[in-house]
What we know:
Layout: H1 3-11, E1 19-29, H2 69-81, E2 88-90, E3 93-96, E4 106-109, E5 116-123, E6 126-137, E7 141-143, E8 152-154, E9 161-167, H3 174-191, E10 203-212, E11 222-227, H4 230-249, E12 257-262, E13 267-273, H5 277-280, E14 283-284, E15 291-293, H6 295-303, H7 309-318, H8 323-331, H9 333-344, H10 354-371, H11 383-394, H12 400-411, H13 416-423, H14 431-444, H15 446-453, H16 461-470, H17 477-487
Parallel strand pairs: 11-12
Antiparallel strand pairs: 1-9, 1-10, 2-15, 3-4, 3-14, 5-6, 6-9, 7-8, 10-11, 12-13
Amino acid sequence: MSQAAQSSTTQSPIAQPYAVVIGLEVHLQLRTRSKIFSDCPADYHGAAPNTFTDPLTLGLPGTLPTLNREAVELGIMFGLGLNCDVSGFTQFHRKNYFYPDAPKNFQLSQYDRPIARDGYLDIGGTRIRIMRAHLEDDAGKLMHPAYAPYSLLDLNRAGSPLIEMVTEADITNAEQARAFLETVQAIAQALGVSDATPEEGKMRCDVNLSVHRPGEPWGTKCEVKNLNSFRSVERAIVYETARQTRVLDSGGRITQDTLGWDEGGGKTFLMRTKEGEADYRYFPEPDLPPLDITPEWIARVRARMPELPAQKLTRYLAAGVRENDAVTLSLNVGQSRFYDEALTAGADAQKVDAQKLANWLLTDVAGALASSETSLGQSALQPAHLASLVRLIDARTISGKIAKELLPDVLAGHDPAALVQERGLSVVTDTGAIDAAIDAAMSADPATVEKVRGGNTKAMNALFGPVMKAMGGKAKPEVVRERLTHKLGL
Length: 490
């Protein structure tokens, strides 16, 4: 091995003699009309600070919680989507802590009786176990203006219904963590449990990470809090793995700390020493009785569940869609809904090719929408129109080139079949018109004609292009080649 190669191997994080152990805690804001323990509206996004509050949110004396039934049923549904056990008793506890974003001075959460437990998701051939998922109310939001000697508090979010999912420490790298989160997001959105949009704070993630030498006991973990994008999760895992490795390599010791993430600086920073369970002084909530989740209740919730991403993936693969495309479609709720409608549009007509439809949706349509900074939901594109466009190409009524030229109009809501008819864009198979174009091309380039007739058959391509151009791209390529071959005497 060369010196340069040895240096590269030494510097690579993969070559470090440490194994990485990662567990994730994922918070999802549930899609309910009201908060979890009161009738205060939950959709506060865009509202002025502290306008979506009520006596319970503010922790006023004498207030009592009333549990939101829909939040419970969404929790059951999400648990089923994660292959969890949701049967039996569940109970709320008071989790005591003293921060200004929790006016009650406690959070209503679930301690030893979560609504869902012992689940799993299979990610890229690896099973990630899910320890638990529990319901709780969210805290408010603290904001810290730069250089100001004060902080600002917005309690609109306080009391919003959350489900927190905790994995076992089965994740080993940043890419696997991201794939897991993308799958969780897709499940939540497919079920309608949560919008699961990190950019709106409706999906947040904490990363618990430690490193150790293979064969030795696990190291001390640190928790990186409140990561609000998949990219931040990846970057935080990469950075924290390298940081802990450096500390251990230099003879230092990792302490169990709670860390924040500096997105701009690309590094973690110390927030506080990690609390233990004893610090929260959990005890059963006296104003909310335990719930018994019966088999009948579970059956009613299960009957409401739509198709899950894993089921979509299986169906797409069976339809002949390439694996990468099938995974992309199955994890994007909007795209998969559109794709399914296009796939079944015009059921009495010619069936559309599943892979070709996926190609157009994921490549041409996605590229055009990205260029115009428009989402699929914001466009006027109709599923039946995209299916029609693919059928027109498959039937060789139009060429791929003409289809791409029509795409902007199809995105604007126009029917491609009608456009083809109105504009006379059907592929030309009239040999008389094609022969005339060939004669003109041969007359304009006698040197190439001689080359072809002299044995250089590849030179025929120099005539093919001008003929197709003269026909406006509407001539059927096979007919053009056949007539060229005949005219050249090959």
